[in-house]
Amino acid sequence: MDMEQIQPYLDKGIELSMAYLPKVLLAVITLIVGFWIIKRVIKGMNRLLGFKAVDDTLQKFMTSLVDVLLKILLLVAVAGMVGVQTTSFIAMLGAMGLAVGLALQGSLGNFAGGVLILLFKPYRVGDIIEAQGHTGKVWDIQIFNTILTTYDNQRIVIPNGLMSNGCIKNIFVEPQRRIDIEFGIGYGDSIEQARAAIQSVIDNDDRILDGGSFDADIFVSAHADSSITMLTRAWVNSEDYWPVYFGLFEQVKYAFDKIKPVLPFRSPSGMCIYFSRAEAKVRR
């Protein structure tokens, strides 16, 4: 092959080089600068989310998602700069996204619920909550699920879609809680003596708060079939709730033993039986 035969190919190569080389160089520079800018954007986003005290799980997910989306947009833009037709490619991505969205409709709902939970924080890891008929300690908050551990150490996984759209009771989120307990005394007993016995138990327990709005209340709340119900309300710090709750039952029993109140109960036959120190009465 002589030079005259090669020359047209050389001319065509020079023509193509002159046409596409500046575009390729510009695309490479755009790609390098774009990756550098994306890296800076992600670092700034991490600092901003850290300053806003966004949950670590959500922070990592959001930065990863933004990073991937920006890189995809950058690659599409660079491909268009060198003359690649991106219209069909974008349409294909849109169709794929729609198909995936329809197939994962439930999962996307759980994902959206997880984002809302991590953003608005109706509960945090370590909180005791009641939701979807379950009560337990929040062990982990994931993007798609919330994991609880119950008091008897069972693990419950609840989809975040249900958590974000349902009622959630955060039991110990407040620093103080009120204990409500009902004690029964007989119809023949003195209400004032019973109230004084309960009050003495409350006064001797340093874990029970007093003063201002934290003062304890003791009053008659109901006339039951076989007893007078004394409702007791006392305020405690949230971490002392259960120890004080169960402790009051025991200590009030000891206090009642000292004043010998009537101990009412209902027999299997349906008769109300009252036992006191001096006598026993059977009433139909």
Tell me what you see in this structure:
The chain has a five-stranded antiparallel β-sheet with strand order 4-3-2-1-5. A three-stranded antiparallel β-sheet has the order 6-8-7, covered by helices on one side. Strands 9-10-11 form a three-stranded antiparallel β-sheet, with no helix packed on it. 51% of the residues lie in helices and 23% in strands. The protein is built from seven helices and eleven strands. The longest helix is centred in the first third of the chain and has 49 residues. The chain starts with a helix and ends with a strand. 14% of the residues are buried. It is α+β, with helices and mostly antiparallel strands. Helix 1 runs antiparallel to helix 2 and helix 6 packs across helix 7.
Main attributes?
alpha+beta; 5-stranded antiparallel sheet; 11 strands; rod-shaped; 23% strand; disordered C terminus
Gist of the model:
This protein has 284 residues and is α+β, with helices and mostly antiparallel strands. It contains seven helices and eleven strands. 51% of the residues lie in helices and 23% in strands.
Query: Structural class from helices and strands?
Result: alpha+beta
Order of helices and strands: HHHHEEEEHEEHEEHEEE
Strand order of the largest sheet: 4-3-2-1-5
Beta-strand residue fraction: 15-25%
Q: How many beta-strand elements?
A: 11
The global form is rod-shaped
**Uncertain ranges:** 266-284
Q: Report the average pLDDT across residues.
A: 81
Rg over C-alpha atoms, rounded to the nearest angstrom: 36 Å
The biggest beta sheet reads:
5 strands, antiparallel
Continuous helix count:
7
> Alpha-carbon distance between the termini?
126 Å
- Helical residue percent band: 40-55%
